[in-house]
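Technical note accompanying the year-one report. For the benefit of new consortium partners, we illustrate the data format agreed upon in the data management plan: each record pairs a sequence with a structure-token string. No post-processing was applied to the example shown here.
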Amino acid sequence: QEQLVESGGGLVQPGGSLTLSCAASILGFSSYAVAWYRQVAGKQRELVARMTGGGTISYLDSVKGRFTISRDNTKKQVYLHMNNLKSEDTAVYYCNADHISGLADYWGQGTQVTVSS
């Protein structure tokens, strides 16, 4: 079975940094676009960052300049490097991978990020 497993979440102070990791047990991983989403309880899930198979990267406006998405196709890992964290970044963060064909879409279980003093 193929799956995504996130790790690295936790409690961090405002202005701090945190790196999330996603282990992707997926065949043909390099043919997938990868993304990070986040969701606050009671609110809609939103796209935070995405990297296509061709290397095109996009970010949610509110995280531009603070967050960086990256991937290691050899290790089948996806990362989200988060700097200068703010209280409004508090959410459950989810890893996503969708195949270039649009025929496969995988989600991780989520990892909690809490930004608080």
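Partners are asked to follow this layout when depositing records. The CA atoms of residues 39 and 109 lie 12 Å apart.
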